[in-house]
Design a protein that fits this description.
- The complex is a heterodimer.
- Chain A is of the alpha/beta class.
- Chain A contains eight helices and ten strands.
- Chain A is globular.
- By secondary structure, chain B is mainly α.
- Chain B folds into two domains: 99 residues, no CATH class; 69 residues, no CATH class.
- Chain B contains eight helices and no strands.
- Classes of the chains: A alpha/beta, B mainly alpha.
- Chains A and B meet through helix 2, helix 3 and helix 4 of A and helix 7 and helix 8 of B.
């Protein structure tokens, strides 16, 4: 379980996370908040992309400050702009590159790549350049590239921001069908249907923590007051 | 999209050859053409290169698109040699260059990038003795290939913004937005590498 203890972080003296303490145990957790509320920075602390100035982010015995490598193998991360997440020239190679650090054999690597490409409907594109895929396919590729490493937790930072309604629904279905714990940072309130817990962030703090419906009401009230 | 393409799926005889054999053959052809120094040999090589495209199952349009990119250079080299040298030399140099670029493109089109990177990593293995990491060098090469369409996309986006605002005649105004976009893309790629555990350096 991911645990945050008094997490504080600032950029150039501007505080973006102001003493956040959380235990993230539920299967589906959503995080909502206005632009600049600290969502993306919080998301990045969860797999060690950002190490907080103060406080700690831990998963079991591992701490992102000292064991980022171990945590990243357990906590996958999906960005909002999938195009930036595509590293290798072709679809299959991009999925495969994430497996290299796991030290799997050639056969097991190829088996996993084929399985994940088939599962997400990308098997027909295995040798195509990733950057030529449609927006929805790129996001599927980004998800496949992370899920092929079989992380225990998937952190998604606004994965549907650049997608149309059809592709947003497709990503929603994919996330819905995952066995992994999903921590979803989003502006799309519809994605939170069926979630176990939703946090509302404002000015670097968690200002509400509860059921999705109540959290959305709180968030809308917060925005209406501005 | 780059006209000098990446791998195109297929099952012709050239696809079944290992990457190393293809690159070695390319090297030998290059050395042979230069050693022969004959315009008839160079023209034969060019004809063979053109015939190879349909033979391995690739449309001839792939070859034309390469020549379309190359022709200004061929024209410049040819004119220079005709003016200051001999027409045979002009013909030989242009045919040699076109043949070798077409053949190199053929290798690229029929070889998976992963095979090429594995070969490259194998070739730079001796550098381990001076502290270099062959896998990392291969990754840098892969990222370089991946960056080509990113640079094209950054240029296209900046150009569209420039035209949408009704600007003409100030092409230098594109430089800053392109560089800013490329720096952002580079930063995002670095973040993605770290997030996917491919580079273990920690951001702070």
């Amino acid at each position: 379980m991911l645990r945050l203890e008094e997490v504080r972080h600032s950029y150039d003296g501007r505080p973006v996370l102001c003493g956040i303490t959380l235990e993230l145990a539920q299967h589906r957790i959503g995080v909502i908040g206005a632009n600049g509320s600290g969502k993306s920075t919080l998301a990045r602390t969860l797999n060690g992309l950002v190490v907080p100035d103060r406080g700690s982010v831990t998963m079991g015995e591992w701490d992102t400050r000292r064991h980022a490598k171990h945590i990243r193998r357990r906590v996958g991360f999906v960005f909002s702009d999938a195009a930036n997440q595509i590293i290798m020239p072709t679809v299959a190679e991009d999925v495969e590159i994430g497996l290299r650090s796991l030290g799997l054999g050639r056969e097991e690597t190829e088996r996993r790549v084929e399985a994940v490409l088939t599962r997400y409907g990308l098997d027909g594109h295995r040798d195509h350049p990733g950057h030529l895929l449609s927006g929805g396919q790129k996001q599927l590729l980004a998800l496949a590239s992370v899920l092929v490493t079989e992380p225990e937790v998937l952190v998604c930072d606004e994965p549907t921001t650049l997608l149309d309604l059809r592709n947003t629904r497709m990503v929603h279905r994919v996330l819905d069908g995952l066995e992994q714990q999903v921590i979803l940072f989003t502006h799309d309130l519809d994605l939170l249907d069926g979630f176990d817990r939703v946090l509302v962030m404002d000015a670097g703090r968690v200002v509400f923590d509860g059921a999705p419906g109540d959290a959305v009401d709180h968030y809308i009230g917060l925005m209406d007051g501005r | 999209m780059s006209t000098v393409g990446l791998y195109v799926p297929g099952d012709g005889p050239l696809y079944r050859l290992p990457a190393g054999a293809k690159l070695l053959a390319l090297l030998l052809v290059g050395v042979g053409l230069i050693a022969a120094a004959d315009h008839r040999v160079a023209l034969t090589a060019l004809a063979v290169a053109l015939v190879l495209y349909p033979l391995v199952g690739l449309p001839l349009g792939r070859a034309w698109s390469v020549l379309r990119v190359l022709w200004p250079f061929l024209l410049a080299i040819g004119l220079f040699q005709i003016l200051f040298g001999e027409w045979q030399t002009a013909l030989r140099l242009c045919a040699q260059l076109a043949a070798l670029v077409l053949l190199a493109n053929l290798v690229t089109l029929t070889t998976r990038v992963r095979e090429m990177l594995d070969l490259f990593a194998w070739m730079v293995r001796p550098l381990r003795h001076v502290g270099a990491d062959p896998a990392r060098i291969a990754l840098v090469l892969a990222l370089t290939i991946r960056s080509i369409p990113m640079v094209a996309a950054a240029w296209q986006a900046a150009r569209e913004g420039y035209l949408a605002r009704g600007l003409t005649g100030y092409p230098h105004l594109l430089v800053v937005p392109v560089i800013v976009q490329l720096l952002r893309m580079a930063d995002a790629t670095g973040e993605a590498l770290v997030a996917r555990g491919i580079d273990e350096a920690t951001r702070r």
